[in-house]
Amino acid sequence: MIPFAQLSQNFTKLVLSHQPTPLEVAARMSSLLGIKLLIKRDDCTGLAGGGNKTRKLEYLLADAQKHQADTLITIGGIQSNHARQTAAAAAKFGFDCELILQDVAGAPTDNYSENGNILLNSLCGATVHKLSINDDCQQFAQQRINELTSTGKKPYLIPIGGSNVIGSMGYVQCAYELVQQINQQQHRVDHIVLATGSAGTQAGLLAGLIAADSDIPVLGINVSRPVTEQNPLVEQLLRQVLQALQLDPALAKNRVHTNGDYYGEGYGISSSVSESAIKLLAQQEGLLLDPVYTGKAMAGLIDLVHSGQLKPNSTVLFLHTGGSQALFAYRSCFNIPIYS
Ligand SMILES: Cc1ncc(COP(=O)(O)O)c(C=O)c1O
Q1: Hey, which of 162, 187, 299, 322 would disulfide with 167, CB 3.0 to 4.6 Å?
Q2: Domain Tryptophan synthase beta chain-like PALP: where (predicted)?
């Protein structure tokens, strides 16, 4: 195993998150499913509600500081968790923050544009540009960069989901943290399951596992694309991360597995299996998932256990990447009585 300090010597980071996040046994779900279900609590990274983007932002903000930037710009859907964590990170380190957020086709109407993450962005002082479905966000971002630069500001563009080599370093580090916890708690993990979207979480995690000499398979449950699109996205970024770490990009071969059966009608559109998984985890474990990412990933995990693709008595580790702040934007999807 290459020591992490040596592996990451070309990267700097700021501290934004609570680390290590807990690795817990989900006892009631384990007995319900007939497996050992472990949950890595990256919903508890701590920054304004936490989530996976906080680890990425530690590296991205350090890079922004290195470039003497004063304004962070990023892009996402209206209920982007990444945008919320970027707004909070910007506040903590004194950057201005501009969020370019796009409507999502098929998303709920009540609460979606005013509650959940979008409310928290404004609380953290971010400037929010709301774009409609047919607008070109990248073009708008470039326009804002030009405008800000012409007034003497120094903008720094963080890609969608923080998913470039620098952001993925957060999950290279998480892999080391996880391997240490798995060893300390004496688990033998057969599978890691997580939600995969812009790909940096899965790519970073895989690069870290490869560098740490761990061959635990990682299954991404796609939240927006079929396997034919998501697999190459993850693999391309994984190769770039391996290269940046001075490892052989060919080590990416046969490491990327994703499943496109659970994203339903599309990104940001809640599904009934995801809503059932959200209710189940809340009622069995007191654990909050979300309709866009972790609810769909957990629905996939449960279904793969039921179909025998995740074997009885195996140990499955679910990487909880956060997102429950979006529940409030999806209120209308949960037709549950509030009062008796
Ligand atoms: C809660 C949550 N889970 C998972 C993901 C997917 O991570 P990635 O975009 O790195 O694939 C995101 C991305 O926004 C997220 O907000």
Answers
A1: 162
A2: 18-322
268 pocket-lining for ligand 1 (C-beta < 6 Å): no
- Model pLDDT for residues 20-30, shown as the tens digit of each residue: 999 999 999 99
Closest CA to 221 of 309, 109, 125, 100: 309
Atom of ligand 1 nearest to the CA of 168: 10
List the catalytic residues: 80
Domain 4-52+164-333 belongs in CATH node 3.40.50.2300: no
Mutate to test the pocket of ligand 1, among 21, 45, 47, 52 (most ligand atoms within 8 A of CB): 52
Fold designation for 53-162: Rossmann fold (3.40.50)
pLDDT tens column, 118-145 = 999 999 999 999 999 999 999 999 999 9
Tally of CA atoms within 13 A in the half-sphere of 235 that contains its CB: 15
Domain residue limits, the chain: 4-52+164-333, 53-162
